[in-house]
Amino acid sequence: MSTTAQIGVTGLAVMGRNLARNFARNGYTVALHNRTAARTHALVEEFGHEGAFVAAETAKDFVAALERPRRLVIMVKAGEPTDAVIREFAPLLEPGDMIIDGGNAHFADTRRRERELREQGLHFVGTGISGGEEGALHGPSIMPGGSTESYGSLGPMLERISAKAADGAPCVTHVGPDGAGHFVKMVHNGIEYADMQLIGEAYQLLRDVAGYTPAEIADVFRTWNEGRLGSYLIEITAEVLAHTDAATGLAFVDIVTDAAGQKGTGRWTVQTALDLGSPVTAIAQATFARAASGQRELRAAYAGLPGGTTPALSRTEAARFTSQVEHALYASKVIAYDQGWKMIQDAAAEYGWKIDLGAVAKIWRGGCIIRASFLDRIRAAYAADSELVSLLGEMEFAMEITDAQVPWRETVASAARRGIPVPAFSAALAHYDTLRAGRLPAALLQGQRDYFGAHTYGRTDRPGAFHTHWAQDGRPETQA
Ligand code: NBP
Question: Whose CA is nearest to atom 18 of ligand 1?
Answer without folding.
Answer: 81
